[in-house]
TrEMBL record:
InterPro entries: Leucine_aapep/pepB (IPR011356), Macro_dom-like (IPR043472), Peptidase_M17_C (IPR000819), Peptidase_M17_N_1 (IPR048816). One of its GO terms (cellular component) is cytoplasm. GO terms for molecular function: manganese ion binding; metalloaminopeptidase activity. Residues 304-311 form the Cytosol aminopeptidase domain. Keywords: Aminopeptidase, Hydrolase, Manganese, Protease. This is Leucyl aminopeptidase. The lineage of its organism: Bacteria, Pseudomonadati, Pseudomonadota, Alphaproteobacteria, Rhodobacterales.
């Protein structure tokens, strides 16, 4: 979908933000109506105020209390879902962060996934509030909607070939170059683990490589593109397989982030690498106890075929590292352990660079995209060393699953590195975030990149 602000017009309906219990924040002509209808300014609640001619004179939207705001991001702008069609204009002065969050929430609230059922719902239009960067917010919203669409589409229509096609369409739109290594060519060009994980699928595995920009620092984004994960021969139970169309959420998120970077003309050299595979079951599927040799030369003992994401990422990360980038960021729906640790709303991330972690945390708070730093805990390195091979893809014991996965990936990168172990799914509808696929961490990264890359 296209996320756009409305063209300014003199007929726009003014919106006033009203804190809970402070009806004086509404215009005097609306205060009696608000009092008589019981409007108290609860967070995200809206009220239309009629004029003398019966037409809407203004709209009120509640900003609640500070405690309510802390518990529900996007609720203010997300209140737009309850307003009728029309063009609206913010009439209350908000600080820059609040105005940006309000405007972005309004754009994201227009999202609906109707490819297979229903029709797109109408949504009221908003004139960009004064002081916000409308073009940047539109790019961010469109990138997020791209991520949502890719995750929400089932594997029947979003396998490795369709994911590659989506990346190609994005590259063409922004004048980026793209190359795709497919099938047995992965063996010939030394991507053995990507090929091994994907070879049992009817849709051949692929490595997508997109480049944009010819000057500035070099940023490489690597996204896990497991378009469906049966678990392989260590097959998942049905309940655990139900959401596995979202196992390419890392790829979807880096493509959404790539759109944001390219649409805002960030002065960098961007590279996006996506190993796109299905982890399927067939006679040629890889097996528990197999030992694989990675692109980097490190050997990996397979102790669970359902820990496949780190295998395809390892070859892609090695390839990224060969280009001597200034920063590598990987995003993956990698472990259930991360969800147990922080739930579905926080984006856990790993980095050895304190300055990058600080920049990201500051940006996350600023743009309402929460993250949480996890440790590359060196004493756990022995847990991923099985003895019979250099590395173990699934350490026994069940402890520190997200950390050991991150440590595994770090073995394949010498460059400055940051890794996200995201969920990529909104379990229930929330303001500006309907149930379904969702981007995580991308907006925080976008805002932090100028600091991290010294732009």
């Amino acid at each position: 979908m296209t996320a756009k602000f409305a063209t300014p017009t003199h007929t726009a309906i003014p919106i006033y933000v009203v804190p809970k219990g402070d009806i004086s924040a509404a215009p005097e002509s609306a205060q009696a109506w608000a009092a008589n209808t019981g409007f108290e300014g609860a967070l995200g609640k809206t009220l239309l105020v009629p004029g003398a001619d019966g037409q809407t004179d203004c709209a009120l939207i509640g900003s609640g209390t500070a405690a309510a705001q802390a518990r529900s991001r996007f609720a203010l702008g997300g209140g737009s879902k309850s307003l009728p069609d029309g063009t609206y204009q913010l009439a209350t002065d908000l600080d820059d962060e609040a105005a940006n969050e309000f405007a972005l929430a309004w754009l994201l609230s227009a999202y609906s996934f109707t490819r297979y059922a229903g029709t797109p719902t109408t949504h009221p239009n908003l004139i960009a509030p004064t002081g916000v960067n409308a073009q940047a917010l539109e790019a961010i919203a469109e990138g997020e909607c791209l991520t949502r669409d890719l995750i929400n589409t089932p594997a029947s229509d979003m396998g490795p070939v369709e994911l590659a096609n989506s990346a190609s369409e994005l590259a063409q739109r922004h004048g980026a170059t793209i190359s795709i290594i497919e099938g047995d060519d992965l063996i010939a060009q030394n991507f053995p683990m990507i090929h091994t994980v994907g070879r049992a699928s009817i849709s051949p595995p692929r490595l997508i490589d997109m480049r944009w920009g010819d000057s500035g620092p070099k940023l490489t984004l690597v996204g896990k593109g497991v378009c469906f994960d049966t678990g392989g021969l260590n097959i998942k139970p049905g309940g655990s397989m139900g959401l596995m169309k979202k196992d390419m959420g890392g790829a979807a998120t880096v493509l959404g982030l790539a759109h944001m970077i390219m649409a805002t003309k960030m002065p960098i050299q961007l590279r996006v690498l996506i190993p796109a595979v299905e982890n399927s079951i067939d006679g040629n599927a890889f097996r528990p106890q197999d030992i694989l040799t990675s692109r980097k030369g490190l050997t990996v003992e397979i102790n669970n075929t359902d820990a496949e994401g780190r295998l395809v990422l390892a070859d892609a990360l090695t390839y990224a590292d060969e280009d001597s980038p200034d920063l590598v960021i990987s995003m993956a729906t990698l472990t259930g352990a991360a969800r147990v640790a922080v739930g579905p709303d926080l984006s856990p991330f790993y980095t050895d660079h304190d300055a990058d972690a600080s920049a990201l945390a500051e940006s996350a708070a600023k743009v309402a995209d929460p993250v949480w730093r996890m440790p590359f805990h060196d004493p756990y390195e022995s847990m991923i060393e099985p003895g019979i091979a250099d590395l173990d893809n699934a350490p026994k014991g069940g402890f520190a699953g997200s950390i050991t996965a991150a440590l595994f990936l770090r073995r394949f990168v010498d460059a400055r590195y940051m890794h996200f172990d995201i969920y990529g799914w909104q379990p229930s509808s929330a303001p500006a975030r309907p149930k379904g696929g969702v981007g995580m961490g991308a907006r925080a990264v976008l805002d932090a990149l100028p600091k991290m890359l010294n732009l």
